[in-house]
Every structure is written in structure tokens, then in C-alpha cells.
Design a protein that fits this description.
mainly alpha, single chain, about 65% helix, about 160 residues, 6 helices
């Protein structure tokens, strides 16, 4: 039971709600509905069965590739009844989803490795700029830049 008092639905409030609802009913044409159908699609892990082809296209996948996989599984298992046919269809969807998740995982790993490589290059650059060789003659600035990296700080101090 709520401790908060619920607002009473008056005729004036009901009329205001109906008037506001007329302004925000969403797309009405088939083209508008098709345009917003996949607005919430991010990765395709939880797509509805009627939007599978559209979600594959939106994710840059090949729906014909899925159909080929499904036909290959049908030919391999040759289901005798509707139950086994549904199981083969589910198997095809699971294989396809697993491939999608593996591609997403590989992309995330590549992105992280690229980020780490950029960090390593930035650190190397900072270390190289922090000091100079003993044979090199360089006039130090009155206020040299302060590196963030501990190794670069040590090298600057030693230089």
C-alpha cells in the first residue's frame, strides 16, 4: 500500500491527458514505423523474431548467410516433425548469435589493445622527451615540463 496519495482523475485532468496524447502518438505511416522500428537496437543480442532480418541488416550482417546456415543444418539433421524442425531453427539462431557475440568480443579486445598501444607510445614519447643523452648539449628551460610518468620523472631528474 502506497503512503503517497494518488491523484484523483478529474474530468479536467482526463481531458488534458487526452489532448496531450494526441500530440505524441508516434509514427503513423508504414514508412515512419519502419524507420523507428530498430531505434533501440544496440548489439542484436535480444532481437525479436520478426525483426531478425532487419536487425541483421542494421548490424551489418548477412541475412542470406544465416539462411544458408539454417538450410545446411536442415539438410544435415533432416527433421522428421515440427518439433525437430523448430530445434534445428533454434540451433541455427544459437550458432548465429554465438558468432555475433564472438565478433563483438573480438572487437572489444582489439579496441582495448589499441588503447593500450597508444598509452605505451605516449609513455615512450614522454620518457624520450624527459631526458637527453650525456653527450648531447642542451640548455634546459628554467621551468621544464613536468612529466606524469614516474619513469619519465626519474629520467628527467637523472639528466
Amino acid at each position: 500500500m502506497s503512503l503517497r496519495k494518488s491523484p484523483r482523475l478529474t474530468t479536467r485532468l482526463l481531458a488534458a491527458n487526452r489532448q496531450n496524447a494526441q500530440k505524441s502518438t508516434g509514427p503513423r505511416t508504414l514508412a515512419g514505423k519502419a524507420h523507428v522500428k530498430l531505434n533501440a537496437l544496440k548489439h542484436g543480442r535480444c532481437t525479436a523474431s520478426d525483426a531478425t532480418r532487419e536487425s541483421m541488416l542494421a548490424a551489418g550482417e548477412d541475412p542470406e548467410g544465416f539462411e544458408r546456415l539454417y538450410q545446411e543444418l536442415l539438410n544435415a539433421y533432416e527433421p522428421a516433425d515440427a518439433l525437430w524442425a523448430k530445434q534445428v531453427e533454434d540451433l541455427a539462431k544459437l550458432y548465429w548469435r554465438r558468432g555475433r557475440l564472438e565478433r563483438a568480443r573480438a572487437a572489444l579486445m582489439r579496441r582495448e589493445l589499441d588503447r593500450l598501444e597508444q598509452e605505451r607510445q605516449q609513455r615512450r614519447k614522454e620518457i624520450d622527451e624527459a631526458g637527453f643523452a650525456p653527450t648531447e648539449q642542451r640548455v634546459l628551460d628554467v621551468d621544464p615540463p613536468r612529466p606524469q610518468d614516474a619513469t619519465a620523472k626519474l629520467r628527467q631528474t637523472l639528466s
